[in-house]
Specification:
It comes from Salinicola endophyticus. This protein has about 240 residues and is an all-alpha fold. The chain is built from 8 helices and no strands. It has a domain at about 100-235. The protein is about 75% helix and about 0% strand.
Length: about 240
């Protein structure tokens, strides 16, 4: 029964992610990294993720954009926006065209995208190698997941900071670490807590080559998203992170 429900939710997640990927190809996001983040969100938010995308993140279609060269204009607008962010740094401003809760929600998906990608990449490695930390394969799995999530999470922050501002690579990396560390830790804590519960209740081991493992990971990522939401709110309020 668990395997059947696992496949239902996993396939729903894949379908949602594919629908988002197809849609962002026709409606590219103003921030390029969100073209990746939204489909990843669909993987752990089956169907609900599509609603969130349409409500909070869907961009205008290419056909609706005026026929002119926007490349230079967009770059200038992004740089101006980045300067405005810096000016308002201490005021915790969020994206002006969304209610704050939505702005924080989208920022949390941005954090969750990097974390999820890191977890997806490292979980099969942990299972295949039997990597252990302090004699525990569970700790080994969690450690690899944290490293992968942190690397991808910081990368997801670094790329838009570099694209939208004048900061050099070093400063952009520092800003990315400041913006992502607290929310990433909060995400991973929520994820780990659920996987420990799942280990005691439904799984005897963390086997990334089974459907129930990834179903439990879907739930774990949803919980991680929930635990990262307050962290993103705090970071935005303090001007450390910009609402989206």
């Amino acid at each position: 029964m668990l395997t059947m429900w696992s496949w239902i939710f996993l396939l729903s997640g894949v379908f949602t992610a594919l629908a988002m990927a197809f849609d962002v190809a026709r409606r590219p996001q103003p921030m390029a990294i969100m073209n990746i983040t939204w489909p990843i969100t669909g993987l752990y938010m089956p169907l609900v993720g599509w609603w969130a995308y349409c409500k909070m993140g869907r961009a205008a279609p290419k056909a609706a954009v005026a026929q002119q060269d926007h490349a230079g204009h967009d770059q200038h607008a992004q740089r101006h926006h980045a300067h405005a962010d810096q000016h308002d740094h201490d005021h915790g401003h969020h994206h002006g065209d969304k209610p704050k809760w939505q702005s924080v929600f989208v920022s949390a998906t941005h954090c969750g995208g990097g974390c999820t990608l890191g977890d997806v990449v490292t979980a099969p490695i942990a299972t295949a190698t039997g990597f252990a930390l302090l004699g525990s394969t569970v700790l080994g799995h969690f450690a690899l997941a944290f490293v992968g999530a942190y690397l991808f999470g910081v990368l997801f922050q670094y790329l838009p900071i570099r694209a939208m501002g004048d900061a050099g690579p070093g400063q952009a990396l520092k800003d990315a670490i400041k913006a992502d560390t607290l929310s990433l830790i909060a995400f991973q804590i929520g994820m780990y807590a659920w996987m420990l519960i799942a280990l005691q209740g439904w799984m005897g081991e963390l086997d990334a080559f089974t459907a129930p493992f990834w179903f439990m990971m879907q739930i774990a990522m949803l919980i991680g998203f929930a635990t990262s939401y307050p962290a993103n709110w705090i970071l935005i309020n303090r001007g450390i992170k910009h609402g989206m």
